Amino acid sequence: MENLAIGAIASFSAGMATVIGALPILLPINLTQRVQGIMLGFGGGVMLAATSFSLIVPGTAAAQSLGVSQTNSALIMVVGILLGGLFLQLAHRLMPHEHFFKGKENCRGGNVKRIWLFIAAITIHNFPEGLAVGVNFGNNNISDGIPVALGIGLQNIPEGLVVALSLVAEKYSASYAIWISFLTGLVEPIGGLIGIGLVNIANSVLPLAMAFAAGAMLFVISDEIIPESHRQGLEKEGTIGVMVGFVVMMFLDIALG
């Protein structure tokens, strides 16, 4: 029960980092496209390292601790990752949404307000992050969850600013952009509670749950984060961001995990 509360607080805090990132739009700042590309890439790098060091590696170890052979542990990771990616693919296909830079996706009618399409896209993006935090805290080992929550919160700060800037560019007010950041940040504790709940119901689910979260995050990284960080010829800036984000999250996980 204590882990449930701590995990819920941690995933909520990670989600609210999006709001912290959005706050600078209240100031007279003007971030260049290059800086935004680096910031988005940074978020992708953090997520990529969390997928590897905080989900796949400990998920494999968790499977082996349950007496599963090394080969079957690897198969569990493969199945979970593919299921997580499939889940996100289905969410993309079934839920109308709009990316800030890639445009509309699965929008068959014109009766949905554009802001709700943006919110749907961010919701699809944030849910796997909350799930990743939750399954780590659900392992009854707080030290596993803290680096993930810190890393996800860290990557949510620049991501929140880029999203808020995009909303302001769409003629929404700064206060409204911050409000939307708050609403979309609430998705992460929901994902966190689901992750914690699954693992607490049956600890044997932990390896598959970790692999599922890893697959969902990999889908987001490849389908959204990296392409958007590479827009308008910003491949180098996005790549720099990815590498810096990766090593920061790797350091947090090794040093604190």
Q: What does this entry look like structurally?
A:
The protein has 257 residues and is mainly alpha-helical. 79% of the residues lie in helices and 2% in strands. It has helices at 2-22, 33-65, 70-94, 114-137, 142-169, 174-185, 187-201, 206-229, 235-256; strands at residues 97-99, 103-105. It has a two-stranded antiparallel ribbon with strand order 1-2. A hairpin with a 3-residue loop joins strand 1 and strand 2 (103-105). Helix 4 packs parallel to helix 6 (174-185), helix 4 runs parallel beside helix 7 and helix 5 runs antiparallel to helix 6. The radius of gyration is 18 Å and the shape is globular.
Descriptive tags:
257 residues, mainly alpha, two-stranded antiparallel sheet, 9 helices, 79% helix, 2% strand
Indicate the topology:
Elements: H1 2-22, H2 33-65, H3 70-94, E1 97-99, E2 103-105, H4 114-137, H5 142-169, H6 174-185, H7 187-201, H8 206-229, H9 235-256
Antiparallel strand pairs: 1-2
The backbone outline, from C-alpha atoms, is globular
Query: What does the largest sheet look like?
Result: 2 strands, antiparallel
Radius of gyration: 18 Å
- State the separation between the terminal residues, measured CA to CA: 21 Å
Helix/strand structural class: mainly alpha
Series of H and E elements:
HHHEEHHHHHH
Q: Which runs of at least 5 residues are low in confidence (pLDDT < 50)?
A: none
**Secondary structure: helix percent:** over 70%
Can you count the beta strands? 2
Instruction: Give the rounded overall mean pLDDT.
Output: 82
DSSP helical segment count: 9
**How much beta, percentage-wise?**
under 5%
Which sequence of strands runs across the widest sheet? 1-2
